[in-house]
Design brief:
mainly alpha, binds zinc ion, C4-type zinc ribbon domain-containing protein, Helix Hairpins, 5 helices
């Protein structure tokens, strides 16, 4: 599978997970959002679906990281990992066509497309 496709799926999964965890926040309900169980269930299904589309090793890394950090993906900006705010080795920055993890915090790196 091309890494752009994997990255796209990862990004979608990431957004979905953020949405799902937002729904569990009490203030989310306080500000008037009414979340139907059905809606949450369909999001969980979409999540499983996306996870199934990823190569198993990437899906495994993602799930492990999510348990550890909540946010498994960190954007890269100006050569910095935005998960741990450490500068990434230049050698890594030349491999943006591949799926990479941060050598410091281990998060999956996401390159923002300009
Ligand atoms: Zn990092």
């Amino acid at each position: 599978m091309a890494s752009e496709v994997v990255e796209m799926h990862l990004k979608l999964l990431f957004d979905l997970d953020n949405l799902l965890s937002d729904m569990d926040e009490p203030h989310y309900k306080e500000i008037g959002f009414k979340i139907e169980d059905e809606e949450k269930l369909s999001l969980s299904r979409a999540r499983q679906d996306l996870l199934g589309k990823l190569p198993p090793e990437i899906a495994g890394i993602y799930e492990r990281l999510r348990k550890r950090y909540q946010k498994a993906i960190a954007p890269v900006d100006n050569g910095f990992c935005f998960g741990c705010f450490q500068q990434l080795p230049t050698e890594l920055l030349t491999r943006i066509k591949e799926i990479n993890t941060c050598p410091n915090c281990g998060r999956i790196l996401y390159w923002r497309r300009k």
